Structures are given as structure tokens and as C-alpha cells.
Amino acid sequence: MNYGKELILDLHNCETRYFNRDGIEIYFDELCHSIKMEPCKLVWWDDLYTPKKDKVTEPHLVGTSAVQFIKTSNITIHTLDILKRVYVNIFSCKEFNASYAKRYTKNYFGGKIVASTIIKRI
């Protein structure tokens, strides 16, 4: 019996105009609607309210992370603004169209998918 699956995507050379809370929230809303997932709580991790002197500046750390909990698990995103990269994990015990989710993510953020993995959970 399958418990679910997880789609893992790494995108490089992305357009960074959506690397913010508004852009990511739209991505989650549209993706959830398209793959028929019910969004629940959305949690952010970024330095939006961090004093300038305390903000991180290393290219592999500058960005926004978020977890969109869905009724059947979660969708996680990490953006790296300076490196123009996006990392996405979509995990659900409810079946979803991974090919569509992959294509939608690429079209939304632009860039090139450099890694794509599907893991079946058992």
C-alpha cells in the first residue's frame, strides 16, 4: 500500500520577482487549486522583520522559506534570491499530478529544472 508521494524540485536561473511572501502565497494558492489540495496553515521563515544589521548576507542563505500545510501533508519552498534558485517539496498521501506540478512550478518561477525526483512513500 502506498502512503503517498513526494515531488522534489530544484530550479536554477529563476526569475526572482516572485521570491517574496506575496509571490509565494500566490504560487501556493494556484498550485493547491490546480492539483486539488486543500490548503491549511501557511508558515513563513524569512528576515522580513529582522533589523538590517542582523540580516544574513551569504548567497546560500538569503531568501524566503515557507511551509504550506495541506489537509494531506505539506508543500515546502526555499528561495535563494542571490543565486536565483528555488527548491520545492510537495508531499501528500493524496494522489496528485506530479507532471503538472512540475510544469506549473517551472512556468511560475522560470529558470531550469536541474533536479526532479519522485519518492513513493510506503
Describe what you observe in this structure.
The structure is a single chain. The chain has 122 residues and is of the alpha+beta class. It has one domain (4-121): S-adenosylmethionine decarboxylase. It contains 2 helices and 6 strands; from the N terminus they run βαββββαβ. It has helices at 21-34, 98-109, and strands at 4-12, 39-45, 65-70, 73-80, 85-92, 112-121. β4 and β5 (85-92) form a beta hairpin. The longest helix has 14 residues, at 21-34. The model has no long low-confidence stretch (mean pLDDT 93).
List the helices and strands and how they pair.
Elements: E1 4-12, H1 21-34, E2 39-45, E3 65-70, E4 73-80, E5 85-92, H2 98-109, E6 112-121
Antiparallel strand pairs: 1-5, 1-6, 2-3, 3-4, 4-5
Number of helices: 2
Strand arrangement within the widest β-sheet reads 2-3-4-5-1-6
User: Would you tell me the structural class of the helices and strands?
Assistant: alpha+beta
Largest sheet: 6 strands, antiparallel
CATH architectural label: 4-Layer Sandwich
What structural keywords apply?
single chain; 122 residues; alpha+beta; S-adenosylmethionine decarboxylase; six-stranded antiparallel β-sheet; 6 strands; globular
Quick rundown:
The chain is α+β, with helices and mostly antiparallel strands. 21% of the residues lie in helices and 39% in strands.
